Amino acid sequence: MKMSTDRKDTPTTLTWDNTSLRDIAFKEYFPAAVKDLSVQKDVVTRFLNFYFGRRVQKGLGVEDLVFAVLSILPQSPYNENIVWADDVYKDDGKAFFLSAEAKLAYDIKTVTNKSNNEPSTAEEMMETSQRNCTDNDEHTPNISNDIEDFNLNILFDLDDDNYNIDELSTGDKNTRERDETGRDNEQHSHEPNVDVQDNTVSKETVEEFEIKHNIDEFIKEIPKDIKFNPKPIQKENNILYYGPVENAAFSAWCNNILSNWDTDSKSRAVLKSFFAVVAFVLMRATTKSYKHLFSSFHSEKFLRLLRHCINCGLKTYSPPHKRCLKGSYRTFRRRDGRTPTMFAKLVILGISNTLNKYMKYVILNGLLNYTADYGFNLIRMFRTVCSETVDGDVTQVMESTLCGETEASWKKVAAFLKEYCTGSSSKEYILSYRWARVLDGRFFKDLSCQQNYELAVILTVFVEKITGDSGVWQSAWVENDELVKYREMGNKLYERFESQEKERRSKTNAGKRGGRNLQQSGTPVDFSEVLRLIEIFKIFK
Asked: Where is the composition biased (Basic and acidic residues) (predicted)?
């Protein structure tokens, strides 16, 4: 059944400002006990078991294991000193839990404080948690990593999830139902990050829409120095395979470091750095698919992330067990609980100017570059169309698609461009907005494709015609009773746009323009100061 096109119950849009990121990041703190070296050994050992396929200890969650590893993130494989400032740790920090007992005590306290009208709830939770506190998975994991299974039916995402196409390969029924309905049934009150279906359309027929030939004031006011983000990172489909020999060698190397944990600080730094990089990639599941996780850990790109670990003594490598990947995918794709808090801390770390070059490189190329601009599909499509025009002037695209149905949406886009996409800025909220919708889907909700359905369909038509990629229609927001109407409108507007582009090209001196034309102009300009950090990658080539 096709979705309703009524916007009466539009979820609240939150404002992204100079306090938003830190409010989320410092909602919880790391437990200070994790600074102790013996505790760190337990953290690494527990994560290593998870990495090789053992089940997570009853009473803890995947996020507890991953966040604990990130909380002891060293400055580099050469330097074991923790990269985090002291103010992210507290004695009673609850960004993650180091034991099932600590988590149980917190859960009981939370339930007790929440309501005194349900006296049996805490008792029931105590009984349930006590039953779960014992790890019944005593068997040694099969470290073969099921290579036979990995060799079968390997598929890759068409667009690296650029359009939020997210298959449910793990069969998570609860998560699937949440994504399909746009309602989050987990234990958090805010709106889910997955866009709900809240579309509305005009009742006019296609023949009745009116193209606006006069440039509106809001278009005239758009600055000339609009700078666009670069296109998403290209996928690497060259898959590397690892077998039992590599797994056994890697396991032996890790266990040798754990055996000499108290005395070998250099090896500790390498192992902690390695698992931090692994944790970064696992957290891509906040916006990426299970297949993306699999292909990432089997790629040459991942080995490039490890080059300094290799230089410092990483003797061998074997990818995570599929149980580790599936558990991480199911946990982080929900983007709920303490995940936004941890992610916000990583964003603050990634955009900081105080980090060393190594750490900026691994956090950006391990996580942030792959999750940036999630939920900004409307802006990304606009960027794609602008990058293919004669001189990249955003007003050309606006003029070509401005009509009664799109005017309200273009006003919102124009306001966004003026605030976030002009010049350079050191303001944290300007640098970090690209991850806002990973943290909470209510940020910039007014720029979602659902709330700008008419313009979104028209731009999708443009992108398809420019790139030849029909996969741009494979998104949940597309299904609507008015899809045919606005696709036809998009086709008509594209004819107008193409005609205007041909006229501009004919008047353009190729020499003065540097040979730029519709076919050659495909590289957009960077508009975010944080993206200058990508240049760090060149240092390691």
From this structure: 173-193
